[in-house]
Amino acid sequence: MSDLDALLANLPIDALAAQIGEDPDEVRQAAAVALPALLGGLDANAQDGGAASLLEALAQHEGRSPGDPAAIDATDGEKIAAHIFGDQQEQVISQLGSTGVASGLLQKLIPLLAPMVMAWVAGQMAGKGAAPSAGGDPGTLGRILEQVLKGALGGGAPSQAPTAGSILSDILGGLLGGGRR
């Protein structure tokens, strides 16, 4: 199981679905598309010189479980998504919508997922002895994001429909400024 699959498996899908009034299966599918974009956006920001501010933000989410429904904070998530995607948020959602997931669902879900992603990344860093609250290590942050993104971008049978990985590559390469991919 990839890190991304583990994160998705830990999310409180039923609580998310109830909060936004959507079908849990559709929310699970949308989360599988949105998570790589959120993580890719974090990576792009870290690569663009924002690692120090990202580590500060991660420290605020440290100790929270991404699977805890109490971690669902849409107001915090809206701020996080705005920082991650900047003025490209609508274009990111539109491109992610080309995977077959409704853009409206993604619009509602991304702010709920963003704090959970931050809690998960902070937990991954703490697990590697580089807790954000203890000063963190941009190198560890970069390795964690790179490892997860490799799993998100890799594999899968080719199809004619865009995949989350191909959309993520487009987003990282275009809208969000690239990073190293």
Structure description:
- The protein has 181 residues and is an all-alpha fold.
- The chain has one domain.
- Helices cover 71% and strands 0% of the residues.
- The protein is built from eight helices and no strands.
- Helix 2 packs across helix 3 (24-61).
- The two termini are 23 Å apart.
- The relative contact order is 0.20.
Defining traits:
single chain; 181 residues; mainly alpha; 71% helix
What general outline do the C-alpha atoms trace? globular
* Secondary-structure element order, N to C: HHHHHHHH
Largest sheet: none
The structural class is mainly alpha
* Number of H/I helices: 8
Low-confidence segments, given as residue ranges, are: 155-164
Pfam family, one: DUF937
Organism: Nocardioides cavernaquae
InterPro entries: DUF937
Protein name: DUF937 domain-containing protein
Please specify the SSE layout and strand pairing.
Elements: H1 3-10, H2 13-20, H3 24-61, H4 74-85, H5 89-97, H6 103-127, H7 138-153, H8 164-175
Helix pairs in contact: 2-3, 3-6, 3-7, 3-8, 4-6, 5-8
In short:
Helices cover 71% and strands 0% of the residues. The chain is mainly alpha-helical. It has one domain.
